[in-house]
């Protein structure tokens, strides 16, 4: 699928972002006259983001000017984009500090400006002041606890610090807001799996994490039965459980328990079969199997070959 | 049986041009005017301060935990429940905690709710004033005329509606008076306004009436609702949840449901 300027380009691979940014001259050539269309301003915003990613600050500034002209410089979203632009144009740490001061000044006047609050947190994080970012984020979530984006950012922050249980807590909040997000279920499974690997060998807590990871991956596949990451995680967990031949350790009341070894075996077979199917089809570029990320498919292929499974 | 003779009334064709058209045009013009007037009068939605955002979103958070608890394990649900119930009952999320339990706040004393009411008043006024004016204008100038004959037959029940202002007992209900044409215009011009002003215009009164009734306020705490009570109720709702998890037996469901 060709990348479109109508969707947020944050998650696009670099080549697609470049492709989008190269549309800038065409889009910017069109004059502003005439009627507004629904997609027009979304286009400008996404073009701005793509141009910043590819280093075309000039075109980005032009997009910014148009957005500012239309919505006014005191629009919260425009303010955040303006801040993003000056962050990108800052050349050294001192200028970034200046941008940060600007954010602080804005928030002093209006402490409910959510886009600016988020930009400030992102800037703190990118400047390496992770603990400041985390505390600012916690403060933000105190008055806006229904913001899924912020919760997942917090989870990612904690995860980068190695604080698994806090990261898991934050991600569970995301699930409370969107209970059927299979990628979040799988991500939570990944976090639980990593927590299990670091929590020392044996013992109840490790098994508790593994059991929940298994269930999270299974749930994510249940919600989306082609989800590569879900199968990958399931395969990882089951392989490990089968290797360890873990005995059912004593668990607290109210925690998940491991399923029967036979069930684990069958889950393992299911994950292997599905993974090799996905790998086979997407390396042949079959119709209907094209959406997978190449790196993820490569990782899956490697996992399969590690386990000595012939495709 | 003798046929009822078809009633014919000889009307001056000028009636058509001097009554029917003016009324229609005036109605359309006032509709357009009302649309732009209400666009002008619209005040920007009031900004909430941080405290009230916190109050509203915390309650929303509680509702989310209550409705999606099944994604959590029992233990993590229990921790959240305990924390939320304690906070809700102690009023930790309230905008001004000292007013908790003080009963219903007087909606008239709260300036923010006054503003909302003023907005509603303005809308109502924009609707009532032009209608009153036009109706008295029509009554003063055009009352008592029969201006047109509808091209389809009607039962006698329509007489009072269509021949308002014309006191003639035996006249066929198909004959229409000017004031009735005015009423027809009020209800029938909706699609004309949609065409002229776009679909979300403020000219059509039907839309306004619907909005007045069904438009649940975007703010969760309308005037006269005690947030403390809502928090207490939510705490109770949370406390009575019997936990189950969607992860219970998910692997069995998966193995049954999926085949490669």
TrEMBL record, chain A:
Q: Topology in the membrane?
A: Peripheral membrane protein
**Is Repeat found in the keyword set?**
yes
InterPro entries listed in its UniProt record: EMC2-like, TPR-like_helical_dom_sf, TPR_EMC2, TPR_rpt
| GO CC terms in record | EMC complex
Q: Say where the protein is mainly found.
A: endoplasmic reticulum
Limits of the EMC2 TPR-like domain: 87-193
Q: Where are the TPR repeats?
A: 148-181
What does UniProt give as the signal peptide span? none
Q: Pfam family of this protein, just one?
A: TPR_EMC2
| The organism of origin for this protein | Sordaria brevicollis
**What's this protein's name?**
ER membrane protein complex subunit 2
Fill in the subunit field for this protein: Component of the ER membrane protein complex (EMC).
Q: Which UniProt keywords apply?
A: Endoplasmic reticulum, Membrane, Repeat, TPR repeat
Q: Where in the cell is it found?
A: Endoplasmic reticulum membrane
What protein family does this chain belong to? Belongs to the EMC2 family.
| PROSITE patterns on file | TPR
Function, please? Part of the endoplasmic reticulum membrane protein complex (EMC) that enables the energy-independent insertion into endoplasmic reticulum membranes of newly synthesized membrane proteins.
UniProtKB/TrEMBL annotation, chain B:
How does the record say this protein sits in the membrane? Answer: Multi-pass membrane protein
The reply on keyword Membrane is: yes
**What is one GO cellular-component annotation here?**
EMC complex
Major localization listed first in the record, in broad terms: membrane
Q: Report keywords, A-Z.
A: Membrane, Transmembrane, Transmembrane helix
Q: Which InterPro entries match?
A: EMC3, EMC3/TMCO1
Enumerate the transmembrane spans: 15-37, 127-148, 179-197
Where in or outside the cell it occurs: the entry states:
Membrane
- What are the BP-aspect GO terms? protein folding in endoplasmic reticulum
List the residue ranges forming a coiled coil, or say none: none
Q: Give the protein's biological function.
A: The EMC seems to be required for efficient folding of proteins in the endoplasmic reticulum (ER).
Q: Which family does it belong to?
A: Belongs to the EMC3 family.
Q: What is this protein called?
A: ER membrane protein complex subunit 3
Q: Which organism is it from?
A: Sordaria brevicollis
């Amino acid at each position: 699928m060709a990348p479109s300027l109508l969707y947020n380009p944050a998650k696009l691979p670099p080549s697609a972002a470049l492709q989008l940014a190269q549309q800038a001259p065409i889009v910017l050539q069109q004059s502003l006259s005439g009627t507004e269309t629904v997609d027009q301003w979304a286009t400008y915003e996404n073009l701005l983001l793509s141009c910043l990613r590819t280093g075309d600050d000039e075109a980005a500034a032009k997009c910014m000017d148009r957005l500012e002209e239309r919505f006014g410089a005191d629009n919260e979203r425009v303010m955040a984009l303006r801040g993003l632009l000056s962050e990108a144009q800052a050349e050294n740490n001192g200028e970034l500090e200046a941008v940060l001061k600007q954010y602080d000044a804005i928030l002093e006047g209006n402490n409910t400006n959510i886009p600016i609050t988020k930009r400030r947190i992102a800037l703190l994080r990118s400047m390496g002041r992770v603990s400041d970012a985390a505390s600012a984020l916690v403060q933000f979530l105190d008055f806006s606890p229904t913001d899924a984006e912020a919760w997942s950012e917090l989870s990612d922050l904690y995860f980068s610090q190695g604080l698994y249980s806090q990261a898991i807590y934050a991600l569970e909040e995301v699930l409370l807001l969107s209970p059927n997000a299979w990628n979040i279920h799988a991500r939570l499974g990944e976090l639980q799996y990593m927590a299990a690997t670091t929590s020392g060998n044996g013992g109840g807590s490790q098994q508790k994490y593994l059991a929940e990871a298994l269930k999270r991956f299974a749930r994510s596949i249940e919600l989306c039965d082609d989800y590569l990451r879900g199968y990958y995680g399931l395969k990882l967990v089951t392989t490990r459980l089968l290797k360890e031949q873990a005995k059912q350790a004593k668990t607290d009341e109210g925690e998940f328990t491991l399923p029967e070894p036979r069930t684990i075996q069958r889950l393992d077979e299911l994950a292997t079969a599905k993974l090799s199917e996905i790998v086979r089809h997407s390396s042949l570029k079959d119709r209907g199997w094209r959406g997978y990320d190449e790196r993820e498919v490569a990782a899956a292929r490697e996992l399969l070959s590690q386990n000595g499974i012939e495709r | 049986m003798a046929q009822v003779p078809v009633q014919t009334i000889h009307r001056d064709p000028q009636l058509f041009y001097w009554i029917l058209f003016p009324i229609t045009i005036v109605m359309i013009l006032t509709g357009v005017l009302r649309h732009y007037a209400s666009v002008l009068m619209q005040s920007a939605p009031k900004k909430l301060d941080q405290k009230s955002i916190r109050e509203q979103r915390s309650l929303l958070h509680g509702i989310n935990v209550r409705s999606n608890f099944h994604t959590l394990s029992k233990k993590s649900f229990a921790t959240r429940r305990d924390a939320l119930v304690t906070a809700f009952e102690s009023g930790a999320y309230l905008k001004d905690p000292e007013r908790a339990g003080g009963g219903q706040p007087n909606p008239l004393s709260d300036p923010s709710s006054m503003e909302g009411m003023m907005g509603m008043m303005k809308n109502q006024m924009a609707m009532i004033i032009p209608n009153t004016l036009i109706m008295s204008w029509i009554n003063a100038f055009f009352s008592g005329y029969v201006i047109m004959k509808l091209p389809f037959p009607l039962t006698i029940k329509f007489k009072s509606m269509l021949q308002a202002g014309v006191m003639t007992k035996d006249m066929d209900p198909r004959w229409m008076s000017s004031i009735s044409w005015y009423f027809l215009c009020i209800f029938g011009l909706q699609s004309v306004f949609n065409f002229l002003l776009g679909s979300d215009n403020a000219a059509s009164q039907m839309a306004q009436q619907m909005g007045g009734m069904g438009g649940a306020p975007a703010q969760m705490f309308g005037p006269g609702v005690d947030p403390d009570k809502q928090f207490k109720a939510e705490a109770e709702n949370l406390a009575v949840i019997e936990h189950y998890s969607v992860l219970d037996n998910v692997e069995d469901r998966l193995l049954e449901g999926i085949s490669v």
